[in-house]
DNA sequence: CTAAACTTTGCAATGGCATTGCACTCCTTA
DNA sequence: TAAGGAGTGCAATGCCATTGCAAAGTTTAG
């Protein structure tokens, strides 16, 4: 397990500090998108700004992507190993309004519609709100 | 013109105060989604909280919908006259990363994808970022 | 082996935006 | 015309993202 995490970091040329290993592990275990506050709560004794900067580093190296799910707090979720956060990597996110958890629906790719003349798309953020399978 | 605005309010049973007429007019004229700060700047001498509450009233009566375009500030845009802000009324929003303006693409309805088993959709927020036709 | 240079971390602000309590004004209505 | 309710303005408050600065840790050059 630890090897998998370290490999993920190595793959993206990010130095494996203790904090980074922990944050990455959390994101892998939870298997959903987490906010800064949620992550902080999972650690108890880590500083929020350190986690923030850890996540920033992760973003810059395509380890995580940020999700704006309208909850007020930005959520962070793991990227796939071959992700470069391009339009093609964008996928639908699902916010359950009951349990308040946000999931990546990686198997549900976004179909970019035909835009009006002169509009060009660089990035898509498609959020669906509803009830998730465990809350049904 | 003024009649059109007053009618919109009457249609939704919202009393036409001076502030409400002004805010509604702004939203009609700009033909795009505006943030609270943008609206405040257009008036110079109106209080932000008054505009906020005006917009809240508008939302509650399906006159405007709020858009989370990831800019940090919520944007507000006019609803169609027959809108009840249901899933069917949801449409794509476009944020131009050059001029920072957000538009409703009402002619580009959202196609809701097939969700994984057990997931049910109630609301969709589909935002596309890119370059708009006037910035191309 | 050691000192300098750089990176990471923790603490303590700061700033932006949404939201609300309270008092004042205005408008409606009995 | 007085009372009640609706609308407005001002001044907080709170939440979240972000950053400056100094301490601690790590790497590198000599």
TrEMBL record, chains A, B:
For this UniProt record, give its keywords in alphabetical order, as a comma-separated list: Metal-binding, Zinc
Query: Where, by residue number, does Zn(2+) bind?
Result: 96, 99, 132, 135
Q: Which Gene3D superfamilies match?
A: Winged helix-like DNA-binding domain superfamily/Winged helix DNA-binding domain
Any binding details for the cofactor? Binds 1 zinc ion per subunit.
What's the cofactor?
Zn(2+)
Q: Which domain of life is it from?
A: Bacteria
Write the protein's name.
Transcriptional repressor
The species is Acidiluteibacter ferrifornacis
């Amino acid at each position: 397990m630890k090897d998998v995490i370290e490999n993920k970091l190595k793959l993206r040329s990010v130095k494996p500090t203790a904090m980074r290993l922990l944050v990455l592990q959390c994101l892998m275990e939870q298997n959903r998108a987490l906010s800064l506050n949620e992550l902080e709560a999972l650690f108890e004794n880590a500083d929020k700004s350190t986690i923030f900067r850890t996540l920033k580093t992760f973003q810059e190296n395509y380890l995580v992507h940020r999700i704006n799910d309208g909850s007020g707090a930005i959520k962070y979720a793991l990227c796939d190993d071959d992700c470069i956060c391009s339009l093609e990597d964008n996928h639908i996110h699902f916010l359950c309004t009951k349990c308040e958890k946000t999931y990546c629906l990686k198997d549900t790719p976004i179909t970019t519609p035909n835009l009006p003349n002169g509009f060009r798309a660089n990035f898509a953020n498609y959020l669906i709100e509803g009830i998730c399978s465990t809350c049904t």
